[in-house]
Specification:
Blueprint: E1 8-14, H1 20-26, H2 31-38, E2 39-41, E3 55-61, E4 64-66, H3 67-79, E5 80-86, H4 88-92, H5 104-114, E6 133-138, E7 148-150, H6 157-168
Parallel strand pairs: 1-2, 1-3, 3-5, 5-7
Antiparallel strand pairs: 4-6
Amino acid sequence: MNAPNRKLRVATTSLAGCFGCHMSFLDIDERILKLVELVEFDRSPITDIKHCGPCDLGLVEGGVCNAENVHVLREFRKNCKILVAVGACAVNGGLPAQRNHLDLRDILEEVYETEGGLARGSKIPNDPELPLPLDKVHPIHEVVKIDYFLPGCPPPADAIWKFLTDLIAGRTPVMGHGLLHYD
């Protein structure tokens, strides 16, 4: 009798984005039971583990918009042998990067000081508990090395399933025309 193959350890994290890629991941529906037979989850919405241990595969959604995102991403990269940028925000900054053509100071002033309906004397928050925003939102490959890119907003569940099962089987993932959408 052959010894069972070791399960791959998989972790996920979300940075500046909408969490839609994680929702698409969960949309693999009952196939998640098959996935659990093939992998062991570390940090993910399924486990609610907050810190990533050593993993074979890391999936990152969201862009990098603040100092905390930079820290989380670098730590995640250190712990993952293979790192995948999942979705438009991770791949190119996505919707959060729409602010990149604006001055950050102007944005903060409008949101916290001059927008109608604010309490008199409202100020831009300045608390050590809040992560410092970056001047621009960055795709994750500008901060760490990425091994694979899975585009989409979000990538459909079938694309995530194909991508993961190809990697788990030791194949280079190939996404056909019908699996990738850029809308």
